[in-house]
Write a structure and sequence with these properties.
alpha/beta
């Protein structure tokens, strides 16, 4: 049904942050891979990097899945971002490293003066002098990595790992995810337009997620920040 609702382009470009199971296990069921005459570029982050291509094809070996890579309707090709920056059909795509066990990369996309930054999975650890936890927003803006502020600077949309609140983070240090308050502080310092809190904790209810959103909105108001903030969810479409 999904294939009949919208015409498919002849070429797709797929960028994967990292290859942990929760990020790749849906690939064999990704509808475009079963459509003939589509070419899908699967990108590595640097020149010659075909690790994502090798891992995704490996998970579809007969020991794990009945349909092999070569049996898909689409043609899957290994590609890369060269030095980490590449023009892809008029969109400037940049990759950058993130703090996550096993490694991870985020991406920024720029076209016609618009910018979207995708920054997950990433852990921003509390720094000396930060008030943490800070449930009532009584401390100062937290120290966040300057490199990430620079990457996100002026983005129209920042999609960012915000899995925990401050108290939850304290029990999950080293897991590779951030407190929503810390990600909010990054968004304020980067002067972004909108923030989508992302990578919700699997054990969280909708009420838990909304509580984090409200906490972040309060933080933005207290620090007189610019961003509009909301929780990412399936099916959301945004226009710029």
């Amino acid at each position: 049904d999904i294939l009949s609702r919208k015409p498919m382009p002849k070429e797709l470009h797929l960028l994967i942050t990292h290859t942990h199971w929760d990020h790749i296990q849906g690939f064999p069921f990704f509808a475009p891979t079963h459509v003939p005459d589509i070419q899908i570029h699967l990108y590595g982050t640097i020149k010659g990097d075909d690790s994502r291509y090798q891992l995704l094809s490996g998970q579809m070996s007969s020991a794990y899945f009945p349909v092999g890579f070569g049996d898909l309707g689409a043609r899957i090709v290994s590609d890369d971002l060269g030095s980490g920056v590449k023009d892809v059909n008029g969109v400037t795509v940049k990759s950058f490293p993130l703090n996550h066990p096993g490694g991870c990369h985020g991406y920024s996309f720029e076209k016609d003066g618009k910018k979207i930054v995708y920054m997950t999975d990433n852990e921003m650890e509390p720094q000396e002098g930060d008030t943490f936890p800070d449930p009532y927003h009584e401390g100062k803006l937290r120290k966040v990595p300057p490199a990430l502020v620079e990457i996100a600077k002026g983005a129209d949309l920042l999609i960012i790992d915000s899995q925990y609140d401050d108290h939850e983070y304290l029990t999950k240090k080293g897991w590779g995810h951030s407190s929503c308050n810390t990600t909010t502080d990054l968004a304020i310092q980067a002067d972004v337009g909108s923030v989508a809190l992302f990578h919700h904790d699997p054990e969280s209810t909708d009420t838990d997620v909304e509580a984090r959103v409200e906490s972040c909105r309060m933080r933005i108001e207290i620090f007189k920040g610019k961003p509009t903030i909301f929780a990412a969810r399936e099916g959301v479409e945004l226009k710029f």
